[in-house]
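ok so i was messing around last nite and threw this chain in just to see what happens. nothing serious, just curious
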Amino acid sequence: MTVTTVGATTAPKPNSSLNQAKLYQLILFPFNNGATNVYFVLLMNYTMYHANGVLGLAVAFATSMVTITRAFDAFIDPVVGMLIDRTSTRFGKFRPFMVIGNLTMVVSALIMFFGTRAIPESMMWARYLAYTAIYVLFMVGYSIQTSCTRSGQTCLTNDPKQRPTFTLVNTVASLIGMGVTQVVAIVFGGIYGYGTEAFFNVLIPMCIILSAALTVLAVIGIAGKDRPEFYGLGNTESEGKMRLRDYLPILRDNKELQRLIIAASGTKFAFAVATNTAVGCLLYASMMGDYSQFFMPMYVMGYVFSAPFFIGGLMMSQKYGQKKTLVTFTLVALVCYVGVTGLLALWNPGNPAFGLSLFSTEGGFHLTLNAYTIAFILLYGVGYGAYYSTADMSIPMVADCSDYETYRTGSYVPGVIGTLFSFADKLVSSLSTTVVGAAVAIVGLKTLPDSSTPYMDGMQVLTIILFCIIPMLAWVATLAAMKGYTLTGDRMKQIQAVNACRKDAIASGMSVDDAIATYHSVDQVPESYLDKR
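result:
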């Protein structure tokens, strides 16, 4: 194949288009997401219990504070993304932000959950003011560290077969962060109650230690890749020149990013609503009558059903690309949740045959499974497994959008791409806590439901809407957005080949503009750059 160069004296040297990560790097770096998900569970599910139960702040304030500050956090993201793209230190672009973000959350958590208790009840106005200020600081730290997960993976690997592996490992890392936090919270929430000082005396130190340990692992994982030679096209012409006003053209012109934002942010909102602790209490305590019997087994069962989807999703993504897997699993979840909706509509508190029943301890332990429970386990388990396995799939897809931006414009701006995505994601998902809080108020509850909240009129419809209808609407939006998404597995192989050829051309003396003009389609690059696996 003849390769024509423009404005350069040397053609690029034939080379592999792949930047591959070592196994330990693929395993360790995703723990950055696990570290931040520790605090995500804390923020989304339990801070409002602390504000209301420990500090005596109004429920409306506690729930709306989560929404307002998370929305504020979304506006922090673009600034963080710009700083990441402009940063170049001996420790790389990403590691400094990972450490600074985590330390900020440690300090904020200590003040918010322990320091605010020192404010006397007679100065309630000061409690409101202090809680708001510290919560905002907490969200700044959260934004700083979370931004590194999406942006840092771009230098970790660009191998279309490794990026799906990142999804699987990232999910495991998230499970460790979220799962350990949730299990500890469930156990000690059942012992002390969610809105007590004793509960937070156990939960907060555990969260701090766990998140810090996972952050250290993530820093080790990315250390070998957080270097200039793994950044984009390897050029420095535009480094440090990105400004806030440059975000709009990227968001406007990168159509693939737009579609991914719609798909992922809607799903994130639905996930945050459906898995909210208050919604679980409505379903398993208020409707089904025994939170302790149902919540933990169903919670564990959901993860068990997720396992085959994680493994199958990895193989499918490696062969067909992440879009195919996302669409397929979303369809499975949608169909299953139609069935779950029907089962909850049939629920009848006066008829044991139409309610959940796992076991009984009267007269000794024995199973009491009925047909209703078996159907619920199967439909909910498969549906939850399918959609939970897609929850983090958008993260490596953001890296694809970043590589597409490099292909489209020549700019390596992973911080911008990642934080544009999280900007929209957080704005939408920030509504979840307010939606739950408002819904609870509609049925007449003055405090958030817990494991002992009795059933009230209207809870059945409310639970169906929060647990089923909202996720289903989000999945329909995901399917519509993905219909026009073009970054399939084959397309990404072509993009990586073109980017690698341009990178070598620039290293050989060609200008960025000339490299883009010369190599803008896969048929213009040497065959040795093509990934034929």
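not much to say yet. Residues 23-232+239-492 form a domain with the Growth Hormone; Chain: A; fold (CATH 1.20.1250.20).
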